[in-house]
Write the structure tokens for this entry.
Amino acid sequence: MERFDYVIVGAGSSGCVLANRLSKDSAKSVLLIEAGPADNTFLISMPRGIGKLHNPKYPHVKFYQASRGGNRANEVWYKGSTIGGSSSINGMVYVRGAPLDYDSWKAAGCTEWGWDNIGRCYTELEDHELGADEVAVRGAGGPLKVSVHAVKSPLTEALMEAGVQFGIQRTDDVNSVNVVRDGGIGYNCQTTHKGQRFSAARAFLDPVKNRANLKIVTGTAVRRIVFDGNRAVGLEVRDASGDRTINVDGEIILSAGAIESPKLLQLSGIGPKGLLEGFGIPVLVDSPDVGRNLREHRVFAMRYRLRGRGSNNRDLRGGGLIRSVLNYFVFRKGALTHTAHEAVAFLKSRRDLDHADVQVGFGLFTMSMGKAGYEIEREPGLTVFAYFTRPESQGTIRLASADPAEAPMIDANYFDAAIDRERGIDMVRRVRELMNQPALKPYVVGEVTPGAAVQTDEEILDALIERGGTAYHVAGTCRMGADEGSVVDGELRVRGVLGLRVCDTSIFPTLVSGNTNGPAMVVAQRLSELMA
């Protein structure tokens, strides 16, 4: 039987980095296991292909039902289930988070995870088209291509001017440390290269996938971790040939994501004792925080009707879409090379704050519900995606049964914390202030969603709850900490057992101030250093 020194569960953003870094030692054998298929569809490489991929008929995405809290209807969450994980199906927005985020981890006892280390790791990962910069903390020459949205238009330039009129600086790099602290607006930093997606798989796996000591398998679902006493020694898996056990001589690293990693721990006897006993699962470690501390950004999409040109709506429907497809395949240009949004701003929900706490994305399109689901609108429009970046509400992920094939129960518990409600209301008012600047008067007809009739705190909060949605930034469910109650320690080792670590967004003690794809990669970069 095959045996491995390292087995990584999940070929997503974290798993791809780990496979690259750990297999550099030719004396160590590495197995990377992915439940989904290969990433060889053109819909992954085409940035706006996500509009098709986010459909149950494609096997590259895994769907979940999540409770929003209270008696409200469930919402759909999805994560990438393919080589590259969510970096292969996401909006390609590259945001690192603020130094404040990581320094708070360090202050809480995770001493190796402050910005002094994380900022350096980012520069080592990046090959940024703007070049290296010590002040902005930006890297060049690394494996991950980072570009800046290149297509400027009168509308996007008006957005930049509106940001300046609003009181924030225009910037070339929205990830600069002073911008994420003080606020700023600029064109989107994105994981694309020459008009195509540049996923974690392209950056970290493709250059090394032929290493003799690295094996990559797809279509293989991990069902449970096998223990000998309290040491992890193998994995029960299921693939097209049936069930089998993979033996591990060294360590297992769970990089299955903030939904699947806690689920796998619970299935394997590590989790809240009462929950496990209720499903007849032998308790190996009573670890109540496995599946707790779920953090998620609640994104709010505000639609604006535009006059004249500037929107991409006509390029994404009907004959315009056909022209865009041809433009993409012939020239790698046009609307289908755009990411989730074209411009980004960081701002303060209240002017007296000492740190920006709202992220805003400006997408040059609008969608509404049609006969076949959400459709691009005929009339020109702009969507402003906004969220409070440091939510304190905490949800849970818990087993629904002892069957590994069954999805877990997810409770997002949005807006449970008062600060989330307060800052969310302030956020909407601030976005409206930004969109009402003189520079946008020639372009904006008016606000469609939530609409001018929504004005009071109660009306705004109700709109946030009913019309907001997941940002797909779920984190925190295998919390790292210095305390004995944390799921993993400062080297991401699972407490109470040997030979088992977790490395993905589930280990975040708190949610970072922005998109989580970059942070998922950087935690793997940092762990590989700690394991060296």
The chain has one domain: 3-531. Residues 44 and 447 are 33 Å apart (CA to CA). The longest strand covers residues 242-254. The mean pLDDT is 96.
